[in-house]
Write a structure and sequence with these properties.
Blueprint lengths: L5 H30 L5 H57 L10 H13 L2 H11 L3 H9 L5 H14 L5 H4 L8 H14 L3 H11 L5 H11 L4 H10 L2 H13 L6 H6 L6 H14 L7 H7 L5 H14 L1 H11 L5 H14 L1 H10 L3 H13 L1
Amino acid sequence: MWRRGERFYALVVFGVVALEALALGVLVLSFTGRLLGLVGSGAVFQSLLQGLALTALALLVLSAYVLLYHAYTAWREVGEHKASTAWLDRFTEALFAGEPPPPPPWPAPALQALLSLREMLKGEFADTLTEWLRQGLPRWARVLKSRFASKAARLEALDALAQARLPEALPLVLPYLEHPDPVLRLAAARAGARLAQGEGVALLAEALRKAGLPRGALLEVLLLLEDRALPVVERFLVAGEEKERWAALEAIGRLRLHAFVPQVLDFLESPDPELKAAALRALYRLGYPPEGHEEAVLSALLAPEEFLRLHAVRLLPLLGGALARKGLWRALSDPSFYVRKAAAEGLRALDPELLEQAAAAHPDAYGRALAAQVLRGA
């Protein structure tokens, strides 16, 4: 996907296959004519030799091209690495000396060196590098606007914009969230998460809702947004479909967005087991007891989905009290090993004495053994 020259390689392979097909076609016609008595044996023999020669020539061309291509690629990578290192030294010296950068236009290795510096540095140095990188924006914009740019070139441009973190480049990225190629849509989503600022975050949220990305990709974008994720999470919860809401609930827990706790509690009543489990995980990561929704948590202990019972058991210790102890005791009889283990670990955190009783006298043999195992580990 990222290697240049793939189109010419495909053309060479197509030419070789076409020559092989031509040779085989001539041979078929020659042997058919011989069987029908229309062609002499000398002509057939000549066609056979020509076919073998053509096959040998095609294989020679293909082998030579592959070897030369890999040799050229290795040589070019070494040259680009040396050039990038030299430009990196020049930019670093200018940056720390407070001097202007080398005069543009800059070649591709220079821009790559700048992007590497931008990834490593923060604060005032990062702001200075951002100003320098703005001089490379027209080059990336031309690639993204071109109708004839290759997929590899577009991916490189999107990745460069993501590293440069230029907010004004967001309008170049958003149209790619509607691109038919899912790889380009994912790259655009990642770049948009790095670029969006202020009102651009709301524009990104709307574009993501229409992008058709899988829920894992949506979650990745929300995590990349970090402290800018609040408007997107809110939009997903209000107007999103199942995958957007799932990603929002996951992000709430992982980013510790306590402001969304009331919305998370509402999802404990969701009929969708995936959304309900995501809400349970979010509350567990936030350390928030689902008070007032105890019935929903207890009903999850009886759900047919193992993952739903598991997350409900993990959340029970936050509730505390006799209700949580009773639920954990009952969960030690669950048919799932993972649910029983989570129940035993919950009892260890909530009531070690009750865990000792479970290890000694729980009616379920498997639950009793697991309680004893967790007790020994403690």
